């Protein structure tokens, strides 16, 4: 049982659940109501797409911990799984197994949908996660932006899976697909920005171990103050964007969604900005990271309201 629990910690099971929730909500609350009877991405194929996403993400977490062992011994020694509960050999084995299954499923989905994008894109995700763990995460902003893009892909992959080039001459399909595009950009953009914020917050939290092993992350290269300014700017951009969307929601009469977003997303973002100004120690940034994660979940859950609005 200890090994199973350790493995679940290694693959960050709460984050995997988050991926499932995000994709299920986008599919059921946005894609299905918008496209209707012309839907190409049937539920059985969608289930395989979710499994592929989860397996590739789990493999990414494993390889990240595999290469991060020395740094983690400084930053979070009590949370280490590799070498403590699971050997490095088994860790790399499970990385290849999960990645391989995820890639095979992705190419099967591509064949089923007659859409090569999914297979090659998910294969690219596996390569990028490996390169992130070995190289990019130690570089200024490169790793942060890469992870943020991969987070956005969790939403965008469903949009691209549904794309039917053969129906691009159908005005009704184009109109529906444009609506899906708007919501895909909305939620993938939200995922990108808030993930970028969280990645830099985590870099500040982990700066001691990162500095010891030669990483060139933002707090090490630019310093704490500049990193906090960077985080604050992107948080304000996110807040301003959400306020604009709130105004649009008010004009459309989406009162329940507007109230929920104000209470569950906007107010916590303001609290984050206030706490960010005061934060100095690693523990404070750990709390900020947890708050950002809660904001991300609350934001993704707004998809539920589109089940009634669309």
Portion of residues in beta strands equals under 5%
Q: Could you report the average pLDDT, rounded to the nearest whole number?
A: 93
Q: Report the total helices.
A: 14
| SSE topology string | HHHHHHHHHHHHHH
CA radius of gyration is 20 Å
User: Could you give the count of β-strands?
Assistant: 0
Number of domains: 1
Cα distance spanning the termini: 45 Å
Low-confidence stretches: none
Question: Would you write up a description of this structure?
Answer:
The protein is an all-alpha fold and 310 residues long. It has one domain (2-309). It is 82% helix and 0% strand. It has helices at 2-10, 13-35, 43-67, 69-75, 88-113, 116-134, 142-162, 171-205, 207-212, 218-221, 224-252, 255-278, 282-300, 303-309. Helix 3 runs parallel beside helix 6 and helix 8 packs antiparallel against helix 11 (224-252). The N and C termini lie far apart (45 Å). The mean pLDDT is 93.
Quick overview:
The chain has 310 residues and is mostly helical. Helix content is 82%, strand content 0%. The longest helix is centred in the middle third of the chain and has 35 residues, at 171-205.
